[in-house]
Specification:
By secondary structure, the protein is mostly beta strands. The chain is built from five helices and 34 strands. Bound molecules: CU-O-CU linkage (C2O). Lignin degradation and detoxification of lignin-derived products.
């Protein structure tokens, strides 16, 4: 995308609309480097990510942010299914950095997954690491982001996975494809914000704006010139690649007077369905088709996103907007786009859980002969995890800003996860787990209670670096249950290294006798991030066919910071293709 998306050159005139030909040409020129054809038919694509500081102005305030190649949002990675990616990351900033390829399955390439202290030690200032992985069996939209502290606030960008050469989409070929990346913007420095919150035990400051491809839009003060515009031609179909890269907020998205057709989620095709509003949690990606009206209307259409929020805490209750404009043959008699009436969409209320439930139930795997839903029919191991908030005690001689002079925390089965100071994957691979982690992550809550009823009196969490171990090819069923501790809340849980099937969901406490009877084992949604409903539960199944250490956490970054995270260790299988290869020579050291 070159200078078009460079922060310094960003302006309202930036339109990302490219014809398909131009899009591919641009990729070939600016994004796609020379290709080397590999044996398996896929190509090898090289990228270079220079992590550097860049001054960016939003909402009339300039700040220095961490970026990739000075771009905000970061550069687009484009590959075809089956391609190998070699991404050289060079760290020129004062922070430790890692990059995660969110949703990429990383089959036997866990060393390239990216979460700091889980699969790798961070890339330190002045150091370099080459992420080396192949995109297998996935097509659609994913994204990449920094995976250490809160650096992903500004370090993120799209991953576009095109079908194999000569393969087509299972839906009408769009005229153009446009990534729309949602982000969250703070005027203040986000590393300072999270570090302060973690010292005081209180909640971190709320963001000042949401962004659409880096732009907050005209509903914010001093922001009208920073508006994303999508120019369309009458009668054409556009594929919008929606990505929620916001830190802490699920979002509703809608386009005035236009219907969206959902065709893919988390890089898996779904049964197409029409909707006016999309719900997208942090960590989720959704491809939608937007069909432009057959005749250019005399209006400008607002594209808007604002939060779906269920938790007990305050949230950034603002709205990001961009414009959908129809291109017209220039004629002096016709009014200019800026003079046209502006039509706005109606979005669900911020706490519209009924909409959220209906929407998630509509998502179904395409499940055709070509794209089957390989739902595990039998289950080797069952897990039941409570997810939610809690408290840690305040250090002696300190006052804390959480409830009851304690510190806010979050946990899974009451374990608030503590990252080690070396990486889990190295410790596992070299059999040096002693003093790094223990393998006693509880498969069930430490005690039973009415999870969604009146909160307990003791809501203190325990802390530890505990992992759950799975033999190779275990079929896993995991039920995740929200709790009322501190407050009911929807939690978008993300699993690294796998896609899972969302076989069931419901409200209240999960009933192991009754609820499994209603599981969908035919065409459930297959994804990498799913919301545990506020005051409810979700059941997922996956096949542990990828050896390595795999992080699982709430993709609300503040909850991850508070400890709502854990890791799975999937052991090697017997066959040589079932083992994790040794680490690359340039793997960073702690
Ligand atoms: Cu998108 Cu562990 O992250």
């Amino acid at each position: 995308m070159g200078s078009a998306s460079a922060a310094a050159g960003a302006s309202a005139s930036w339109t990302v609309i490219l014809t398909r030909a131009a899009f591919l040409a641009l990729c070939a020129l600016a994004v796609l480097p020379p290709l080397a054809q590999a044996k398996h038919g896929g190509a090898t694509r090289h990228y270079k990510f220079d992590i550097k500081m860049q001054n960016v102005t939003r909402l009339c305030q300039t700040k220095s942010i961490v970026t990739v190649n000075g771009q905000f949002p970061g550069p687009r990675i484009v590959a075809r299914e089956g391609d190998r990616l070699l991404i050289k990351v060079v760290n020129h900033v004062q922070y430790n950095v890692t990059i995660h390829w969110h949703g990429v399955r990383q089959l036997r390439s866990g060393w390239a997954d990216g979460p700091a202290y889980v699969t790798q030690c961070p890339i330190q200032t002045g150091q370099t690491y080459v992420y080396n992985f192949t995109v297998t069996g996935q097509r659609g939209t994913l994204f990449w982001h920094a995976h250490i502290s809160w650096l992903r606030a500004t370090v993120y960008g799209p991953i576009v996975i095109l079908p194999k050469k000569h393969a087509s989409y299972p839906f009408p070929q769009p005229f153009k494809e446009v990534p729309i990346v949602f982000g969250e913007w703070w005027k203040a420095d986000t590393e300072t914000i999270i570090n302060q919150a973690l010292t005081t035990g209180g909640a971190p400051n709320l963001s000042d704006a949401y962004t659409m491809n880096g732009f907050p839009g005209p509903l914010y003060n001093c922001s009208a010139k920073d508006t994303f515009k999508l120019k369309v031609k009458p009668g054409k179909t556009y594929l919008l690649r929606l990505i929620n890269a916001a830190l802490n907020d699920e979002l509703f998205f809608s386009v005035a007077n236009h219907t969206l057709s959902i065709v893919e989620a988390d890089a898996v095709y779904v049964k197409p369905f029409k909707t006016h509003t999309v719900l997208i949690t942090p960590g989720q990606t959704t491809n939608v088709l937007l069909r432009a009206k057959s005749k250019a209307p005399n209006a400008t259409f607002v594209m808007a996103a604002r939060p779906y929020a269920t938790g007990p805490g305050a949230f950034d209750n603002t709205t990001v907007t961009g414009f959908l404009e129809y291109a017209k043959p220039s004629s002096p008699s016709k009014p200019k786009a800026s003079k046209l009436p502006i039509l706005k969409p109606t979005l669900p209320k911020f706490n519209d859980t009924a909409f959220a439930t209906k929407f998630s139930l509509k998502l179904r795997s395409l499940n055709t002969a070509q794209f089957p839903a390989k739902v595990p029919r039998t289950v080797d191991k069952k897990f039941f995890f409570t997810v939610g908030l809690g408290l840690n005690s305040c250090p002696k001689n300190q006052t804390c800003q959480g409830p009851n002079n304690a510190m806010l925390a979050a946990s899974i089965n009451n374990v608030s996860f503590v990252l080690p100071t070396t990486a889990l994957l190295q410790a596992h691979f070299f059999k040096q787990s002693k003093g790094v982690y223990t393998t006693d992550f509880p498969a069930n809550p430490p005690f039973k209670f009415n999870y969604t009823g009146t909160p307990l009196s003791n809501i203190m969490v325990t802390s530890g670096t505990k992992v759950a171990v799975l033999p190779f090819n275990t079929t896993v069923e995991l039920v995740m249950q929200d709790t009322s501790i501190i407050g009911l809340e929807s939690h978008p849980l993300h699993l690294h290294g796998f896609n899972f099937f969302v076989v069931g969901q419901g409200f209240g406490n999960f009933n192991p006798k009754k609820d499994p009877k209603n599981f969908n084992l035919v065409d459930p949604a297959e994804r990498n991030t799913v919301s545990v409903p506020s005051g409810g539960w979700v059941a997922i199944r996956f096949l542990a066919d990828n050896p390595g250490v795999w992080f699982m956490h709430c993709h609300l970054e503040v909850h991850t910071s508070w400890g709502l995270k854990m890791a799975w260790i999937v052991m090697d299988g017997k066959g040589w293709k079932q083992k994790l290869p040794p680490p690359p020579a340039d793997l960073p050291k702690c």
